[in-house]
Specification:
Helix content is 73%, strand content 1%. It is built from eleven helices and two strands. InterPro entries: TAS2R (IPR007960).
């Protein structure tokens, strides 16, 4: 691939990953300003959108930087730009993943019926609890990943670093492992970072999603003889589809990123565009799913499409679509 082709691919990935999240963010904020009240779902959607936008942009900046400066990983001291990009990648991905986990928990508690007084009280106050958890997650992870700004390399000789590099190949040089210039256990910190990025949010997403599916099956069976409540069943189906789809996108993204890291560690050949594709896929797909599951955003999207169509008859028919 030529330089122009690489840039074109990056532009396409940026558009895919950013456009949908920007649409969601703008109209969600507009809704907040009109209602003068921040709902839990709107708060989570806004946080996911903001972090997805930043995540996609910084990943594409990293890919472009590696292409322009092949020896960037071996520069000492670490460029502040590189530290910032790594920090934003970890922080924004973590906040976005955990926001999806909190949303799954929120919907699970809202949808599923409980008999215990303790769980009924939890259900009554779930909005406040989730709002607090989301905001604490944002601030907590921002502090947790701050040691990234102290990353640096020991003194190295970069004369053997090859500059014969493209986005379709790996750098033919072995750089020393970066280390923290603060008193911190590097292995423990790396393990903690991996756990909060994958296993822990997944431990929230999967049980809540499965619990909603079980509840949906039981609810559907109970309503088979009562056709007047099909609309309520449809809303349960929508919520279940939302949570399961987001979990699927999350797992697919983790698989692609893990594959990239494993091949890199094994000194195999894999393009950095794979990493860009993974996060663009995550940002784009999650924005589409969130738009499709939100009535306000769907209405705005239909209105936008109707204006673009400029066909009065089609406009009147399309905009009257009733949300399920």
């Amino acid at each position: 691939m030529t330089v122009a082709e690489h840039i074109l691919v990056l532009v396409v990935l940026a558009f895919v990953g950013v456009s949908g999240n920007m649409f969601n963010l703008i109209f969600t904020i507009q809704q907040h300003l009109k209602s003068k009240n921040i709902q839990t779902v709107g708060l989570i959607l806004s946080i996911i959108s903001v972090n997805n936008i930043v995540l996609v942009i910084v990943v594409l900046m990293l890919v472009l930087s590696v292409f322009i400066v092949p020896t960037i990983w071996c520069i000492r001291p670490y460029p502040f730009f590189l530290r910032t990009v790594i920090y934003l990648m970890l922080n924004c991905s973590c906040i976005s993943f955990w926001s999806i986990a909190w949303q799954s928990l929120f919907y699970c508690v809202k949808v599923v019926n409980f008999s215990s007084e303790c769980l009924i009280s939890l259900k009554r106050n779930i909005s406040t609890i989730i709002n607090t958890a989301v905001l604490l997650s944002c601030s907590g992870f921002s502090v947790f990943f701050s040691p990234i700004f102290t990353l640096d390399l020991p003194a190295i000789d970069t004369s053997n670093v090859s500059t014969n590099y493209s986005l379709n190949a790996t750098l033919n040089a072995t750089c020393p492992n970066p280390t923290f210039f603060v008193k911190i256990d590097k292995m423990a910190y790396a393990a903690a970072s991996l756990f909060i990025l994958c296993p822990i949010p997944l431990m929230i997403m999967l049980p809540t999603s499965l619990r909603m599916v079980v509840h949906l099956c039981a609810h559907t069976l109970a309503l088979r003889k009562n056709q007047t409540q099909v609309q309520g069943s449809d809303s349960y189906v929508l919520v279940c589809k939302l949570t399961i789809s987001l979990v699927g996108v999350y797992l697919t993204t983790l698989f692609i990123v893990s594959l990239f890291m494993i091949i890199r560690f094994m000194e195999g050949t894999i393009t950095y565009l794979t990493l860009a594709f993974a996060f663009s896929f995550y940002g784009g797909m999650s924005s589409v799913i969130l738009t499709a599951s939100n009535r306000h955003l769907k209405e705005k999207l239909w209105m936008f499409c109707c204006r673009k169509a400029q066909e009065p008859t089609t406009k009147s028919q399309t905009c009257e679509t009733v949300d399920g």
